[in-house]
Amino acid sequence: MIYGTLLIIGAFLLFDPRKGARPITIVSLAVLAGVGVSLVDIFQGSNANVDNGLIAFHTFGAQGVTLAGNLMAIAVGTGGTRIRLSRGRSIASTALGTAGLIAFLLFVTDVFTGWMWNTGLFERAVIYPIMIGHGLLGSSVAAAQRHRATHPLAPLAARIES
After folding, report:
1. How many angstroms separate the CA atoms of 96 and 137, rounded?
2. CA dihedral 53, 110, 121, 61 (to 10 degrees)
3. I want to staple 68 with a disulfide (CB 3.0 to 4.6 A). Which of 29, 82, 130, 159 is the partner?
4. Predicted structure pTM score
5. CA angle in degrees (0–180, nearest 5) for 142-147-148
6. Which one, of 53, 13, 7, 70, lies nearest residue 34 by Cα?
7. CB-side exposure of 27: number of CA atoms within 13 Å?
8. What does each C-alpha distance from 77 to 87, 117, 127, 142 come to in angstroms?
């Protein structure tokens, strides 16, 4: 619940939806992922929830967070220069989101074919790229804030002269 809530709040603090399609996309994906992870927390994948039908909310939330979270990592990575991500972090975010989506396809194939081969491995391969991507984004924002705090802008007059 905390992760989902902080993801939504953080996206609104970092991206201004009034500034175009990319911020709207990223904020929308963050909201979908945040709501999805919250649904997974509220409606756990227990046998009781399977029996009473509430597993549908868990499944809907899990699919929402896996798709929206990985797409968000890709959207952040492809627009990384606009939000001051380094080239390496932009590439990493895009690669992580892509790997997560590929893992999601493998997971879905594994479940629907009935193989059920190491399902937990596929689940983690889908979710961990999302969390690492969010960590890269958050640490980049924190580093930029530290840089601004230790290297304030020169006075306007000095900047105009140079």
Report:
1. 12
2. -30
3. 29
4. 0.84
5. 100
6. 7
7. 15
8. 9, 31, 17, 17
